[in-house]
C-alpha cells in the first residue's frame, strides 16, 4: 500500500466517520488513517466501505487496494504503543489494512461493530441499518469562539492570547472598582504634582540669578516647593494603602479560584501529575501576580504618565532641544522588543526549573520512609542538587541578560544628557536661554530617562507576572474530564440498581482496562469482584463513582446514565471504604462525621459502635476528641479502617463500595471489621473487592474479571463447582495461604 | 513461575522468526514452532532493541531475545516489522521551528515517520524525561514522540531544544 502525500481536503471527514446512505457507488463508511506501514511514514489515506467492497483510498481519491466482502471473515483493531492497526481476517490469514496514530483509534473501534454486522449481512445490498457513529474530533469546540480545538483543551489557542488574559485578570479587579478609581485619580494628580518642582526650581534659579531678585518671591517659591513635596508624600501614602488592601483581596480571590478549580478537576488530571507542585504554584504564582497587580501596574501607569508629562514640559521649555531626545527612542523600543522575547522564554525556563525543584522536594518528603529505609539520602541529595543547579544557572542567565543590556541603556541615555548640557550651555552663553531653563531642562531629562531606564526592569516584571498569570489560568481553565451537564439531575433517593452497558475504558486510549462490560447489579445485592491484580476490579469501581467516564458504553444508576446525574448528588449515595484510609486533620468525631458534618454526637457514637470502633476510641484518653490526621495521634491500620466504616455507616448510603477493606489487618481485627462490615452491608447495594476470597464467600454473586472482561458470574458454590477461573484463583490462594479450611 | 530463557548468542542465530502465510508471526526454535507470537520490548525507551520478550498467543513468555541485532537477517527484519507495528512512537530527528502563539506552543519537527506538527498547551507537562538524555513529547492530541540524544541533532534544532526544556 503506497499513497501519495495527501492534504486535507475541504468537505472530507477529518478523523471523523461519515455514514452515508448505502449505494453501490457511494461508500457507507469512511475511516481516516495516517500511518503508511510499508514505509513507516505519516501519510493520510482512507479506508472506504462500499456495499460489497472495502477499499484503501489515497489522498487523491485513487483506490490502492480493494478487498471483496466475500473474502473477509472478520476485522479487528489491535492496539500498539502510541497507535493501533486495523486488521482484516481472511480465509488465508490476517492482513494489516491500515495503521494510525492515537487520535484515530476511537473512531476505528466504534466502527468495528458496524463493519462486523456488514460482514454478516451477506451479499444483498440494502436493508442494512447502521448505528450512528459518534464523531470524535468535531465534538471538541472552544467554549468561547466555537472553533474546533484539540481534545483536552477547553479553549482554543486564539482565545488565550495575552490581551485576553490581561482582560480576564482585570475582571478580578471589578469588585474593587471604586477604590481603584480613587487610586487612579490620585495617581494622575501625583504625577502632575511631581512635574511641578523642576519648574519651580527654574523660577528660583532665574530669580536668584537676576540682579533685581525679590526675597519675598524666593520665599514664596521655596514654600511652594515644600508644599508640593508634602502633598506628593501624602498621596503616596494613600495610594500605597489602597494598593495593599486591593492587592491582598485580589490575590485572595485568585487563590480561591485556583483551589476551587483544583477541587473541581477530575481524578484523571491528578493521575498524570505530580501533586505536590500545586502547593508551590498556588502560592508563588499568585504572589507574583499580586506583586504586579498592586505595585507593578501602579508603577507602569505612573511612569507612563510621568514620561508624557515631562515630555510636554520639555517641549514647553525648548522645542528644539526636546526633539533631540526623541532620536534614541525608536532604538530603545526596538531594544525592548528584542529583550521581551528573550526574557519571556528565559522566564518560562526558570519557572520550569523551580517546578522541578518543587517536585523533587515534594516527592522526597512523601517517600521519606522509603528513602531512609534504603539509605538513599545521598542519591536524593544529588537529584536535588541537579535540579537546583539548573535553577541557579537559569536564574543567573536571566540576570545576565539584564546585566548585559542595562549598561547600554545607561550609556545611551547619558550621552544624550551630556549632549543636552553642551547644546543648552551654548544657548545660555549666546543668551537665547536662561540658566534656570537649562537647569529645569536637564532635571526633566534625568526624570524622563528614569522611566526609560526602568522600562527594562519593568519588562522583566511584566513578563514574570504574565507568565504566572498564564500558569494560573492554565489551572483555572483546565478541562474537567467528567463535567456536570447543565441539565444534570439531582437524585434525592435511589434504590441502588447499577447497570453497566457495553462499558470500555482505558486510562490510556490505546490500552483499554475494561472491555465490553455488561453487568446489572440489583438493588441490595452484594457483589464480590474477583480477579488477578490488574484485571480491572478497581477501575470498575472507579466507573461507579464516576471518577472517570467510559470511552464507550454507559453506566447507569436506577436507569439514569451517570453522566446525567449531578456528581455531588451521585456520591452522596455512595459510601466508600478503601484499603488505605485517609484521616483529615481533626478529631475522631469530625472524621467520622466527614460526610455529614452536622450529625449529632449520638449518631456519631452509634456509627462508631456499629463499626466496632467505639471501644477502642473510648480507651483513648481523649476519646472522640482525639486529634488524628497528619499532625495527630497515630492510629493502627485496623483502627483507621473501622473509622472509615463508621464514616460510611453514618453517611447511610444506598450503595457501598469496599475496596480491599480488610487487606492489611491481623485475624482478630479482621473479625471485628468483618462483623462491622456485615452490619454495614445489610440492605445496601454492595460492591466489594477482596484479596482474601474467603471474605467474599457470602456475596450474592461473584463477578470474575480477567484482563478487563467478565469471564464468570455466580455464587461461590456455583463457580467453585465449575472448576474454571474462580476455582483456579481459590486453589492458588489455598496453596500460598495454606488456609484450606477458610475457602471452599 | 516460569523461568526466564535468555537466549545465548549462538541460540539467537539459530532461532527463526518469520511471518507465516496466514500473516501471523511465528517462532521456530530447536525444531519447535510457536504460532502467533508477539514481541514486547522490556525497555521501550532506554533499550528498544534489547531484551525483547517473545510471548505466545496466550501471553506466556517463550523466550527473551537479549539483542535483536544478534538475530539472523530475515528474523531481524521480521522482528523489526513487528516491533514497528507495536511501538508507534516517532522519533524526532530535527526541530524546524518553535513558535509560541498565545499560550500554546507550536512545533514543526522532522521525525523518522516524516514531518510532523505538534501543538502543546504547555511545555512543563508535555515534555517529560524518561531516561538520561531521552524525552517523551506528548502533543495535545495525545500523540507521543520520542526525542533522544539532542546532541545528535543539527545546531538549529539544538538551539530550539534548549529553549524547550
UniProtKB/TrEMBL annotation, chain A:
Ranges for domain ABC transmembrane type-1: 181-460
Gene3D superfamilies tied to this protein: ABC transporter type 1, transmembrane domain (1.20.1560.10), P-loop containing nucleotide triphosphate hydrolases (3.40.50.300)
GO molecular function: ABC-type oligopeptide transporter activity; ATP binding; ATP hydrolysis activity
GO cellular component, one term: plasma membrane
TM regions (residue ranges): 184-205, 217-238, 297-315, 321-340, 401-422
Main location: membrane
Keywords: ATP-binding, Membrane, Nucleotide-binding, Transmembrane, Transmembrane helix, Transport
Subcellular location field: Cell membrane
Ranges of residues in domain ABC transporter: 498-732
Bilayer topology annotation: Multi-pass membrane protein
The protein's name in its UniProt record: ATP-binding cassette subfamily B protein
Organism: Paenibacillus endophyticus
Automatic annotation (TrEMBL), chain B:
Listed InterPro entries: DUF1854
Domain of life the protein comes from: Bacteria
DUF1854 domain segment(s): 36-159
Protein name (database record): DUF1854 domain-containing protein
Source organism (scientific name): Paenibacillus endophyticus
Lineage: Bacteria, Bacillati, Bacillota, Bacilli, Bacillales
Amino acid at each position: 500500500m503506497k499513497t501519495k502525500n495527501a492534504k486535507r481536503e475541504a468537505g472530507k471527514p477529518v478523523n471523523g466517520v461519515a455514514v452515508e446512505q448505502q449505494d453501490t457507488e457511494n461508500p457507507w463508511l469512511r475511516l481516516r488513517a495516517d500511518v503508511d506501514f510499508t514505509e513507516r511514514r505519516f501519510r493520510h489515506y482512507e479506508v472506504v466501505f462500499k456495499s460489497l467492497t472495502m477499499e484503501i483510498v489515497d489522498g487523491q481519491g485513487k483506490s490502492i487496494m480493494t478487498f471483496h466482502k466475500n473474502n473477509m471473515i472478520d476485522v479487528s483493531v489491535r492496539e500498539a504503543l502510541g497507535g493501533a492497526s486495523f486488521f482484516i481476517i481472511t480465509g488465508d490469514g490476517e492482513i494489516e489494512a491500515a495503521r494510525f496514530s492515537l487520535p484515530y483509534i476511537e473512531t476505528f473501534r466504534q466502527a468495528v461493530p458496524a463493519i462486523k454486522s456488514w460482514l454478516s449481512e451477506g451479499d444483498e445490498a440494502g436493508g442494512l441499518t447502521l448505528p450512528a457513529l459518534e464523531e470524535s474530533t468535531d465534538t471538541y469546540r472552544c467554549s468561547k469562539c466555537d472553533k474546533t480545538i484539540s481534545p483536552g483543551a477547553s479553549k482554543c489557542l486564539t482565545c488565550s492570547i495575552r490581551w485576553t488574559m490581561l482582560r480576564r485578570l482585570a475582571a478580578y479587579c471589578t469588585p474593587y472598582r471604586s477604590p481603584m478609581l480613587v487610586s487612579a485619580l490620585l495617581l494622575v494628580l501625583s504625577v502632575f504634582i511631581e512635574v511641578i518642582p523642576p519648574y519651580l526650581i527654574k523660577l528660583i534659579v532665574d530669580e536668584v540669578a537676576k540682579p533685581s531678585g525679590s526675597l519675598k518671591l524666593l520665599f514664596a517659591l521655596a514654600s511652594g516647593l515644600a508644599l508640593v513635596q508634602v502633598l506628593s508624600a501624602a498621596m503616596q501614602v494613600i495610594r500605597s494603602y489602597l494598593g495593599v488592601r486591593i492587592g491582598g483581596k485580589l490575590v485572595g480571590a485568585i487563590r480561591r479560584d485556583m483551589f476551587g478549580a483544583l477541587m473541581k478537576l477530575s481524578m484523571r488530571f491528578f493521575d498524570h501529575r505530580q501533586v505536590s507542585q500545586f502547593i508551590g504554584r498556588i502560592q508563588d504564582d499568585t504572589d507574583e501576580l499580586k506583586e504586579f497587580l498592586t505595585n507593578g501596574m501602579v508603577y507602569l501607569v505612573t511612569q507612563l504618565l510621568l514620561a508624557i508629562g515631562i515630555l510636554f514640559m520639555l517641549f514647553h521649555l525648548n522645542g528644539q532641544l526636546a526633539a533631540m531626545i526623541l532620536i534614541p527612542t525608536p532604538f530603545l523600543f526596538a531594544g525592548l522588543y528584542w529583550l521581551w522575547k528573550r526574557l519571556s522564554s528565559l522566564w518560562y525556563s526558570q519557572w520550569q526549573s523551580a517546578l522541578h525543584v518543587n517536585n523533587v522536594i515534594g516527592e522526597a518528603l512523601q517517600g521519606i520512609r522509603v528513602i531512609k529505609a534504603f539509605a538513599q539520602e545521598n542519591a536524593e541529595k544529588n537529584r536535588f542538587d541537579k535540579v537546583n543547579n539548573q535553577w541557579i544557572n537559569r536564574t543567573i542567565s536571566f540576570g545576565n541578560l539584564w546585566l548585559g543590556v542595562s549598561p547600554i541603556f545607561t550609556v545611551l541615555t547619558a550621552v544624550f544628557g551630556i549632549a543636552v548640557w553642551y547644546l543648552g550651555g551654548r544657548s545660555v552663553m549666546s543668551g537665547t536661554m536662561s540658566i534656570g531653563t537649562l537647569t529645569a531642562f536637564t532635571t526633566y531629562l534625568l526624570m524622563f530617562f528614569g522611566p526609560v531606564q526602568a522600562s527594562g526592569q519593568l519588562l522583566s516584571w511584566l513578563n514574570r507576572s504574565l507568565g504566572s498569570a498564564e500558569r494560573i489560568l492554565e489551572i483555572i481553565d483546565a478541562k474537567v474530564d467528567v463535567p456536570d451537564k447543565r441539565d444534570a439531575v439531582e437524585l434525592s433517593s435511589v434504590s441502588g440498581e447499577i447497570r453497566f452497558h457495553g462499558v470500555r475504558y482505558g486510562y490510556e486510549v490505546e490500552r483499554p482496562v475494561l472491555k465490553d462490560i455488561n453487568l446489572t447489579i440489583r438493588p441490595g445485592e452484594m457483589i464480590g469482584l474477583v480477579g488477578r491484580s490488574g484485571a480491572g476490579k478497581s477501575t470498575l469501581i472507579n466507573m461507579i463513582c464516576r471518577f472517570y467516564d467510559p470511552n464507550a458504553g454507559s453506566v447507569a444508576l436506577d436507569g439514569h446514565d451517570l453522566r446525567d446525574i449531578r456528581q455531588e448528588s451521585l456520591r452522596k449515595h455512595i459510601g466508600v471504604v478503601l484499603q488505605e484510609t485517609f484521616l483529615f486533620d481533626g478529631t475522631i468525631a469530625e472524621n467520622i462525621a466527614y460526610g455529614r458534618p452536622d450529625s449529632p454526637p449520638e449518631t456519631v457514637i452509634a456509627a462508631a459502635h456499629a463499626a466496632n470502633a467505639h471501644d477502642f476510641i473510648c480507651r483513648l484518653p481523649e476519646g472522640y476528641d482525639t486529634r488524628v490526621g497528619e499532625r495527630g495521634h497515630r492510629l493502627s491500620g485496623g483502627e483507621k479502617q473501622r473509622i472509615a466504616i463508621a464514616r460510611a455507616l453514618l453517611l447511610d448510603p444506598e450503595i457501598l463500595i469496599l475496596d480491599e477493606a480488610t487487606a492489611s489487618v491481623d485475624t482478630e481485627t479482621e473479625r471485628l471489621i468483618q462483623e462491622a462490615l456485615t452490619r454495614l452491608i445489610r440492605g445496601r447495594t454492595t460492591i466489594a473487592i477482596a484479596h482474601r476470597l474467603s471474605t467474599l464467600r457470602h456475596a450474592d454473586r461473584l463477578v470474575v474479571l480477567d484482563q478487563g472482561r467478565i469471564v464468570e458470574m455466580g455464587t461461590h458454590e456455583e463457580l467453585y463447582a465449575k472448576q474454571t477461573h474462580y476455582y483456579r484463583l481459590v486453589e492458588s490462594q489455598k496453596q500460598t495461604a495454606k488456609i484450606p479450611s477458610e475457602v471452599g | 513461575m516460569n523461568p526466564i530463557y535468555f537466549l545465548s548468542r549462538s541460540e539467537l542465530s539459530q532461532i527463526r522468526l518469520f511471518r507465516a502465510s496466514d500473516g501471523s508471526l511465528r517462532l521456530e526454535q530447536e525444531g519447535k514452532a510457536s504460532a502467533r507470537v508477539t514481541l514486547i520490548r522490556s525497555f521501550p525507551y532506554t533499550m528498544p532493541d534489547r531484551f525483547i520478550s517473545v510471548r505466545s498467543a496466550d501471553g506466556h513468555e517463550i523466550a527473551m531475545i537479549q539483542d535483536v541485532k544478534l538475530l539472523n537477517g530475515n528474523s531481524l527484519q521480521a522482528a523489526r516489522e513487528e516491533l514497528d507495528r507495536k511501538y508507534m512512537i516517532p522519533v524526532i530527528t530535527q526541530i524546524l521551528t518553535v513558535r509560541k502563539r498565545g499560550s500554546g506552543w507550536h512545533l514543526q519537527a522532522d521525525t523518522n515517520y516524516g514531518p510532523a506538527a505538534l501543538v502543546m498547551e504547555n511545555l512543563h507537562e508535555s515534555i517529560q524525561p524518561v531516561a538520561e538524555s531521552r524525552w517523551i513529547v506528548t502533543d495535545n492530541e495525545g500523540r507521543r514522540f520520542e526525542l533522544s540524544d539532542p546532541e545528535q541533532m543539527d545546531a538549529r534544532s539544538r538551539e530550539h531544544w534548549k529553549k524547550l526544556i
